């Protein structure tokens, strides 16, 4: 139980930072003409996804939630605009809609779902399947540096040295 509490405490700063970043992006976007606005889009769940929608809501903006039907989730979080909330049955369709409209992606610390979406995005970018340049930002250096050794991929020749420039 103590280990779980330590994990929650360690990750809680990312919740607050996701709210703040989402709020700043929403305020910035509101300054743009209508045809150049950007909207926060999350997976609609709790945790960091909720934080992203919450930041947009606190900035009086609308945000999108692309939920996934899972046996242990109750639907999209309360901060997402209900008119812009969708629930998907299949992960691949959800990822398609995430990437189809995205102009940039900010990936906060997360679990298997986060890794799945990150690596799918990097693979589609690496293979030029997205037909657009889309920046991918990994947020939380202490998390990512301790999790994935991208230089190891290069050492083994499974990615090109320039592939680390995808994020």
Can you give keywords for this protein?
mainly alpha; 167 residues; three-stranded parallel beta sheet; two-stranded parallel sheet; 11% strand
Short structural description:
Helix content is about 45%, strand content about 10%. It has about 170 residues and is mostly helical.
Task: Describe the fold and architecture.
With 167 residues, the chain is mainly α. Helices cover 47% and strands 11% of the residues. The chain has six helices and five strands. The chain has helices at residues 2-30, 48-58, 91-101, 112-126, 141-147, 150-155; strands spanning 40-42, 63-68, 85-88, 105-107, 136-138. It has a three-stranded parallel sheet with strand order 1-2-3. Helix 2 (48-58) links the parallel strand 1 and strand 2. It is globular. The model has no long low-confidence stretch (mean pLDDT 91).
Number of helices: 6
Distance between the termini: 35 Å
Query: Which percent range describes the beta-strand content?
Result: 5-15%
Provide mean pLDDT, rounded: 91
Biggest sheet strand order reads 1-2-3
Shape category: globular
Rounded to an integer in angstroms, the radius of gyration calculated over CA atoms is 16 Å
Structural class: mainly alpha
Topology:
Elements: H1 2-30, E1 40-42, H2 48-58, E2 63-68, E3 85-88, H3 91-101, E4 105-107, H4 112-126, E5 136-138, H5 141-147, H6 150-155
Parallel strand pairs: 1-2, 2-3, 4-5
Helix pairs in contact: 1-2
């Amino acid at each position: 139980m103590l280990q779980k509490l330590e994990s929650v405490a360690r990750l809680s700063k990312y919740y607050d930072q996701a709210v703040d970043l989402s709020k700043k992006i929403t305020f910035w976007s509101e300054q743009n003409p209508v045809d150049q606005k950007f909207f926060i889009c999350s997976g609609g769940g709790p945790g960091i996804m909720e934080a992203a929608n919450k930041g947009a809501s606190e900035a009086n903006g609308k945000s999108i939630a692309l939920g996934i039907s899972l046996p242990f989730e109750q639907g999209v979080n309360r901060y997402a605009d209900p008119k812009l909330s969708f629930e998907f049955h299949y992960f691949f369709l959800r990822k398609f809609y995430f990437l189809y409209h995205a102009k940039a992606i900010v990936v906060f610390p997360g679990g298997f779902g986060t890794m799945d979406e990150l690596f799918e995005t990097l693979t589609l970018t690496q293979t030029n399947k997205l037909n657009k340049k889309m920046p991918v930002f990994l947020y939380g250096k202490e998390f990512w540096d301790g999790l994935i050794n991208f230089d190891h991929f290069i050492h083994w020749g499974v990615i090109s040295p320039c592939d680390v420039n995808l994020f």
